[in-house]
Amino acid sequence: MADRTRQAFEKAKAQGRIALAPFVTVGYPSPAATPGIVKAIVEAGADVVELGVPFSDPLAEGPTIQKSSFAALEQGVTPQVCIDIAAGLRRDGVKTPFIFMGYYNPVLAFGMERFCDRAAAAGVDGLIVADLPPEEAGPLTDIADRRGLIVVPLLALTSTDERIALGCRRAGGFVYCVSVLGVTGARTAMSERVRGLAGKVRAHTALPVGVGFGISKPQHVADVAMFADGAIVGSALIDAISAGPESGAAERAGAFIRSLASGTKRIGASK
Amino acid sequence: MTTTPLQPVRRSVPDEHGRFGKYGGQYVPETLMAALDELTRAYAALSGDKTFWEELAGLQKNYVGRPTSVYFAENLTRKLGGARIYIKREDLAHTGAHKINNALGQALLTKRLGKKRVIAETGAGQHGVATATVCAMLGMECVVYMGEHDIQRQAPNVYRMKLLGAEVRPVLSGSRTLKDAINEAIRDWVTNVETTHYLIGSVVGPHPYPMMVRDFQSVIGREARQQIIEQAGRLPDYAVACVGGGSNAIGLFSGFVDDKNVGLIGVEAAGEGLHGKHAATLTKGRPGVLHGALSYLLQDEWGQVQEAHSISAGLDYPGVGPEHSYLKDLERAQYVSVTDAEALEGFDLLTRSEGIIPALEPSHALAHIARIAPQMKKDQVILLLLSGRGDKDLNTIAKARGIELQ
Q1: Which end of chain B is less packed: N or C, by CB atoms within 10 Å?
Q2: Residue contact B26–A108, C-beta within 8 A
Q3: Is domain A4-263 given the CATH code 3.40.47.10 in the classification?
Q4: Catalytic: A135?
Q5: What is the ipTM of this complex?
Q6: How far apart are the first and last CA of chain A?
Q7: Any idea where the domains of chain A sit in the sequence?
Q8: pLDDT tens digit string along A74-95?
Q9: What is the least distance, in Å, from the CA of B187 to any CA of chain A?
Q10: What are the pLDDT digits (tens) for B148-164?
């Protein structure tokens, strides 16, 4: 099956820009608001959408995404609700690749096969699991592969060459480089070190390189455009969604993504 | 008298991937994997490093006060009217609980890693106090994460940590107890992994922690096995300990797990009862992943972790160490549960009969032996692990009885 996520990154590249891959917590601020928010960010230029599946113990998240996850859980957002919302967006004609991003235990509890079957049937393209390093990702990757779901690996500033090779081995879509030592959350400046990581990743894979964690401004996106193929933005988008009444959430989300899109012009990205 | 071997016995579990059967593993963000690899290598290197184990043994003896004694509880035995009850007295260890055994071992390892900052989580505060203590002694910076709810119910330990020079950071997320303190400690570790060692206080977390913490706590079982043979002239019929994360129990069990005739009993917190709020993970949970390991877990049908409840902060945890899950499935150990109310009875039982004030955690184990000892013959033997002393719990106990302390 074609890797639509990779294609979305390549299409952006052909247009002389890097891809934008925003993250939203499904069910935040409410399950009813999520479809409108996703449509607005797609309209505003999102090339790939990461749909956050909320978990009670999100240990890689900073305060913003923690809060949005807890709020979603309180409103009864289960993995099945996330699957249903994704399916509804596909029925409404949204074609942008969707990646489910979350933690391993809800997938285990759902049943890995059942989760992958239903996610694939709903039109989801792939998975990112924050607490599943390559050593533990084998069983889920096997199952996802058979349904045509990609598994996007996370690589970190602390990843050794050996670990980068391991992470790239079964990667699909793109490789997600975590730009900081730390949890998700808006930061004032981009770390310099992630450029080195992106360079090392390119030695191991021809897949596009995405950079995330801490991106909150057009300038950060422009910084990423110097060396990577895509920027992932989560907490800052959630902040924009939270910055007013729910009725205006989609509009604020769209406006924020449009502002970031101004930074996507590729300057010196290699290859 | 024979001397206790300095080093832990090498065991068949976990395997090199950190698996106890299917349990354990390393389910953590990629950022931490290099640090776990480093820790695994550094710990493996210790097995051939005699100077490390000699240094640890010297501090265990002269700083901690080991070996802790085994006491024949004659009054309690008479009162229950059945098996002879022996008590392994970890309450007599420096800082008042078994937690110091692991804190000291990991702190010495931290020195070898060249790291000067230590973070820890704490529930009852005993692990936080133990960590703050060894950091004061070894001159290391110490930050302790503690749920806000636990800060309120364990105020004396919070002040103790501060006196020892540690910074206590309140955790406001989730249930504001141990589970959330661990989440926050992991978030700190992801951020400061290059300079910081995460000194986990129980046999939980990603590999190599469940193995390493077990090994540092196995001194309890090694000592107790010799002591019970010397004093009772035989091995116990049952070795009994409370289980939250399960480090004191694993420490005791490791001394007897190869003795097939010794029954191993772990006592979990049934809180308000198994149909209400409780922390009986092995009794009522099912396998899942939390804090880096696959193990039994209190979770809802969607895999969201449920809030645990116990009157004792040290047992108030919805997960459990993976080796306990393994021992349960093998049926090598038996896991039972005791309610808050029963634990308070267990507390009174020891306090009044022997003049020993136990912590609320081992009061659960006491409540269970009060059930089984009367059914046993007078020549049978129970070895109970008294994991800590009860000074920290006086406020909680008074409150449970409607008394306000000054």
Answers
A1: C
A2: no
A3: no
A4: no
A5: 0.96
A6: 25
A7: 4-263
A8: 999 999 999 999 999 999 999 9
A9: 6
A10: 989 987 888 999 999 99
